[in-house]
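Q&A log
Question type: sequence-to-structure
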Amino acid sequence: METKKKASKAAVICYGFGDLASQFVWTFVGSYLTLFYTDIVGLTPVIVSAIMLGARIWDAINDPIMGAIAERTRSRFGRFRPYIAFGCPFLAIFGVLTFTNPFSGSSTAGIIWATVTYVTAGMLYTLTNIPYGALAGVMTEDSDQRNKINTSRNIGMNLGMVIVNAFSATLALKFSGNGAEVANGHGYMMTALVYGIISIPLFLSVFFTAKENVQPIAGAGRFSFKDTINNLIKNKYLMIITLIMTLQMTAFMGRISVCAYYVIYCLGSFSMIALIMTIPSIGGIIGSLFVPAAAKKIGKRNVLMISMIVQGIGLLIIYFAPFDNMNMVLTGCWIFGLFNVGFPMTLSMVADSVDYMELKTGIRTDGTAYATYGLATKLGTALGGAIGVLLLGAFGYVANAQQTPEAMKGINTVVNLLPAILFFLSAAACLLWDMNDKAADDIRMQLKNK
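Response status: OK
Response body:
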């Protein structure tokens, strides 16, 4: 039997550094930019919502185009690796520029500046991370190693969240000047600069260690962008996993974008942001260590479905916890975090959907398929942030003020109850996926024989 092409151990480990790097830029943006816009720049919730949703509308066009460009690229470095090396410095730069405010926030120039920097940062995230995500599907022909590669990514993601959530508030306060109790604009900008500098060598480690071992079927030829879009739409498994990811990411990334409001105004301490937002990420790292074995035993879909159900339960515990009952809040955080292990499963299932459609049509669409993952990530962040901040305003939130009991109840609902409901819906959507892991392995074997 012909030996399967596999990634090196170094490549498996270093692949996780790519998502670690992404978190230094994008998690910091997702966690603090909404707060920066409302409390530092002075933008109204309506304007913040419009900027974020407008950016995501553009992403719906931009992300598939980037995926199509990447999968058609031919270079001595492969189809996807060059974009990681080229894009990461620019992503770091614009990660910093989003936290600058050279104009008055209420002025037209200030609104334009916020829009341009945020949209550009999103495009650079697309340029770097869609090829990065697609790379996991072409590094190995082995299903179990593919799960390990995506688990490495999940560990990198959660480790990045641990670091960002543990140190961001402290760094921002330190850079804000002696005696600062709340971070100012300079504090946020300098923290973004530190993270941007760290992210570049981490991305480059992926570029230097990864190798693209899976290539499109020989003789498949060139195909048009129209063919690509038709393949995506007709790929039922990709459409199912896109639905799952959109709900999952809106719950997870959307919650991150408004969680600081809950900590500051409901629990009553800016400095507690580090504790509350770090625990779930530490739990995710611990839980991820058991994912490959669990997936091998009960299957990717079942691991994903169970993880999201328990995450929803953890958020319900936090929601029903009195604001002064920290033991109950922390228990919910740990439950939520320990089962934060669904992301490597969704990534592996995207790869399975690509293999399925290649066998069916002869066209391999790694780049555009993984564009749906990047789009779901950004859509989730934007929907959670945009709709979340609108709901906060509807519940009576007032920036930099003591909140009313109704406003605090609204913040709790937006941060904990609504994401829990979305996790349950996403778990239910998993029932639509009827391709088991043995069937996915059979598809890869047929592709290899071709």
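Response note: The chain has a mean pLDDT of 86.
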